[in-house]
Inverse folding.
């Protein structure tokens, strides 16, 4: 016989028979938190089962990181050993949740008792078994509950007949007391504790307007100021934007300053790129003097708040060669053997106006702390949204630490990752804490591309950690479709961005003015504001302000456009026509957009009526929200046609039942 | 300014910039091992990437649990930040593997050097940077490598021109030395260590024959013996089976013994169910006296080995009321308040001939040890395969511990889980260590059902831990299709089981004799061997022995049928016709089976020629392996027709290129 000694050790408690597996939501097995918004109902699911035929019970445990002990919620079975419960994530910050499981001996016994009763078996012994179960549990309960459990046991024994005993056993009080005092030694509690990062609503639903404050001068070619920007706020608010994002507002370096259209050498009057941060006047916590004083900036922030607008700043963690850090912290940069600082390079290209931090330097801890202090500085000034420039060129661990550090004190702070790079890099940044991310939307133009990309974004695992922010253009990206498609292309991309993603943004005024001049063969704007002052004509008759205002008003009025959920693509027989529904609760919107900026397009679309809760036989009211027209539709198939010269898309609200009283009112008002 | 003190602690080394994620194969995030067979090439993949533009390097680390240190294999990029390497799992037992990543500064520098060279930039400073990199690494290397690295640095400085320096830098020796001596402080090593359970070939590829030894009496109605079973071995071997599995061979209880057709009371001469284990003569380590002595059993085992057959025993961890455990270990059972032992029940059904163990009893540790000793007893007798009866009615933790304990001493032991229950329960048992599992195959009859089920089994995550064993029938299951479809149904189910799963088994002789008599409205055999002796006529002219022998010979001759990989379903225009290819290396089989046991069926099937490596324009040789006929086919579409009265399916070998020399030989031989 093989010796006994070599058996592996017995588990600590082999009597914990219940298995708890496959908890959701989960990101990378729990390494990163899932993301939700304060007030969200969080649906937690798990596989919970045991050997044999005993009934199991599952409990959701959750708590805010600052709370103790756990809140406990009984879970309910969904079938196929899947269980669910939900809780409301009320507060900003981190929640923890996990699931426990146990055999529910009492409920098992009770269900068997009923079966035996119905099979007319003798229940005497089974009643005694139940009474013993109650009494054993009484031994673990407090005085009051223990007394009640013993009373129940006695009643079970003394019931005049089996029917009375069964009725007693089936009263919920018994099962509830038995659940409360279940033997903790038999509860399976080894499921992972998962975490949830809870942010404020704007982390999910936001409408961004990017502009260069130095171009805010409405008349002439002078350097714009914060004071002049203030004059634009009413117009930006009227268009429905709630975030104004400024490129860096710090002093700009002189050494190797770039000229117009990225010329290697600047002319004397060229203002340089705002991303070449740092000069004699200061670095990342200073303000470029030509924009105004810190007081001017504070005044601007207050004015924006008055319009319901938040200001987002740009975190571009890089320096011009004139940045004070170069002298104060030479160890933070990489020095070449020839005694020069390594400037930014992507060989053979050279960016001599930028010197990047060397995150592998021996003094990295001080660098991280300093950069955290930069963020804290602006948070203390009242900034709660940051657009982070090229986060994918700094270590992932740095961002995870920095964002956690900021959120620990200021859970309201939102970070948007401007990483245009490979998907896994973008997703890792999002997992590490960025609230929102730039996306590939800028290059997804065909129906197949858009549908595939949106399906990816709205499915697990992405939907739990990656919040898209769609930008039809940016100062770095004037996509080909906008270069060739004229004004209709701008409208198409606006409609798509605004209705496919709860957060989107435009870089204006070039967007509203449908500026389409690019450097030849590139996505770069001709005469880009990145390198020179521009004066935009906000009164151009072609300005898209009214359409933008209407689109954003629809977004603000309809919950269905404020989340990433509830998106369904509709079949259509014309690939130039993309069509989808957005729904939230009882609200159903239908969006149809022609992807062709050049010619009219018509197509037959099929609505998934039953999935939308709409009747296939009754008519329903359709409200064209952009045109403010109403119609009555009937059935699943509808022909839609769009002329890009007029409006290449539509947003309809579908009213589920025409004959409801409120719909009558609505229809005839 | 917010105080600095509340920042979260800095990570231990924020300079480890590489991320390693998403290792595969993986089961439940590493909680359970993936499964492979000794000799398998194990393909490990991971996402490996870093911030910025530096080149990364990834290394696979693996070792057998008994080995140290790790073997290291450089990984190669697959695109999209995915990396792969493979290793051969030579030995039985457990392997560990993980992936490390690092920035490859030297390769980054070298690639940049080439780009700069081609852009005709001055390389003087870059050569010096490379030399310094080499010298810094020399400081970490042993004497010989350090000398060589310093020589290389000097050569780089002294090269007569930049072209010569570049040539030096690009010699592989430098990169290899730099990789070997990479700075361990910058290597990311926090990826999980995953494990792999490596079993012998028969865990994957096995052909089972279940029979009741007490029915082995070829003449008359006497109780069969091991000696009589021996006389059947040549026939079983000729049919191509390599595992003979016996239901329990232990003494059978008398108390509450079941009669014929599960009658509640046995007649005097009824032998009882072999699963009612334990009597005066002994328990789980004893042999039922009427079958023979322990020496007879050993003789049988040796005879089986002589035929290349292994014997599998049944582990049925339950007792008859007469089992010696009841007296010796009353605490292992559940006692009712009326002083009786709780028998098996599924209310209102009662199984008084069985008393289950109470795995929640306070003495569970001793019970686990005793059951482990039972397995060890039979392993010491030469048994290396166990079919486990109803494992889903014992705790998962128990099986995980028991299987690990057995494998620690005897990694060759194979366990087959007979759990016919809900999917998550079956899958958890497989994750916990069972080598093979019974499946839902018995109830999957239509083409859609079979294709969906096979797709599930052959995809992640199941393919990495769940090895199916397909059984067309068992003593408990005579499926409806076999009750109504006559002999053609048996042939259909045989062909499917044998070609869809590398392991399959039949319960004979009822299978070969196409026995289809069931209890009315049930899947139970009429006059089941479970409760009475049966005498089978092995010489019945309808016996399927020849077809079975042919099918199993094809399985043994073709690697493609010995793994769960390489399965592709083919489109066909007749849903009664299922058609699939099985491939391994250069070997391609095409299997087509009519699912209709009643009428001839014809259909046009389309072969995925390019996926199979077959030419769409050249003819290829087709060998009908069951009929031993050959033909030349051409193109992707072929009409196949089958008559259930003759043979309702076919197995073809497709030879990739007719004009290869060996195929000519083959064709004309």
């Amino acid at each position: 016989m093989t010796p006994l000694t070599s058996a592996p050790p017995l588990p600590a408690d082999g009597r914990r028979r219940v298995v708890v597996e496959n908890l959701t939501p989960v990101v990378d097995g729990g390494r990163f938190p899932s993301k939700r918004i304060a007030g969200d109902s969080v649906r937690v699911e798990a596989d919970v089962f045991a050997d044999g035929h005993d009934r199991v019970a599952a409990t959701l445990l959750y708590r805010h990181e600052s709370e103790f002990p756990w809140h406990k919620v009984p879970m309910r079975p969904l079938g196929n050993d899947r269980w669910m419960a939900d809780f409301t994530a009320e507060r900003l910050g981190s929640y923890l949740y996990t699931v426990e499981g146990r055999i529910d001996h009492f409920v098992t016994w009770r269900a068997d008792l009923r079966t035996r009763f119905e099979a007319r078996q003798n229940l005497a012994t089974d009643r005694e078994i139940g009474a013993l179960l109650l009494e054993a549990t009484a031994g673990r309960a407090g005085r009051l509950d223990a007394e009640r459990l013993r009373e129940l046991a006695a009643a079970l024994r003394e019931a005049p007949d089996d029917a009375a005993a069964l009725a007693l056993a089936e009263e919920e009080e018994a099962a509830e007391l038995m659940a409360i005092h279940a033997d903790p030694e038999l509860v399976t509690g080894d499921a992972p504790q998962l975490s949830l990062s809870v942010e404020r609503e704007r982390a999910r639903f936001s409408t961004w307007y990017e502009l260069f404050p130095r171009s805010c001068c409405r008349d002439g070619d002078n350097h714009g100021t914060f004071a002049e920007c203030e004059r634009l706020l009413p117009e930006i608010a009227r268009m429905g934007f709630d975030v104004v994002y400024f490129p860096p507002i710090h002093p700009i370096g002189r050494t190797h300053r770039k000229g117009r259209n990225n010329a290697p050498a600047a002319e004397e009057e060229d203002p340089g790129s705002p991303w070449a941060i740092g000069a004699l006047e200061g670095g990342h916590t200073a303000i470029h003097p030509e924009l105004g004083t810190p007081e001017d900036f504070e005044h601007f922030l207050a004015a924006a708040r008055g319009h319901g607008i938040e200001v987002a700043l740009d975190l571009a963690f890089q320096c011009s060669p004139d940045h004070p850090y170069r002298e104060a912290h030479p160890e933070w940069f990489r020095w070449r053997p020839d005694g020069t600082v390594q400037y930014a390079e992507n060989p053979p290209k050279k960016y001599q106006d930028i010197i990047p931090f060397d995150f592998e330097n021996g003094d990295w801890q001080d660098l991280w702390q300093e950069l955290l202090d930069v963020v804290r500085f602006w948070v203390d000034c009242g900034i709660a949204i940051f657009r982070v420039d090229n986060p994918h060129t700094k270590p992932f661990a740095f961002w995870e630490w920095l964002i956690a550090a900021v959120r620990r004190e200021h859970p309201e702070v939102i970070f948007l990752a401007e990483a245009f790079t490979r998907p896994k890099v973008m997703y890792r940044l999002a997992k590490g804490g960025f609230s929102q991310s730039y996306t590939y939307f800028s290059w997804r133009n065909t129906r197949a591309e858009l549908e595939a990309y949106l399906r990816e974004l709205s499915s697990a695992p992405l939907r739990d950690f990656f919040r898209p922010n769609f930008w039809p253009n940016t100062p770095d990206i004037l996509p080909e479709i906008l270069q060739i498609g004229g004004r209709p292309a701008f409208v198409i991309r606006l409609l798509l961005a605004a209705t496919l993603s709860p957060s989107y943004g435009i870089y204006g005024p070039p967007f509203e003015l449908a500026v389409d001049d690019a450097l030849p063969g590139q996505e770069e704007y001709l005469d880009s504001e990145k390198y020179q002052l521009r004066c935009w004509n906000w009164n151009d008759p072609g300005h898209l302000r009214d359409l933008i205002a209407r689109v954003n008003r629809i977004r603000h009025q309809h919950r269905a456009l404020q989340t990433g959920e509830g998106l369904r693509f509709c079949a259509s027989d014309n690939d130039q026509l993309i069509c989808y529904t957005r729904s939230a609760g009882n609200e159903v919107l239908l969006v149809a957009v022609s992807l062709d900026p050049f010619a009219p397009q018509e197509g037959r679309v099929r609505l998934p009526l039953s999935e939308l809760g709409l009747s296939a036989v009754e008519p329903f009211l359709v409200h064209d929200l952009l045109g403010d027209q109403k119609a009555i539709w009937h059935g699943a198939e509808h022909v839609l046609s769009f002329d890009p010269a007029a409006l290449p898309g539509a947003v309809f609200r579908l009213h589920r039942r025409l004959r409801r009283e409120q719909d009558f009112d609505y229809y005839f008002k």
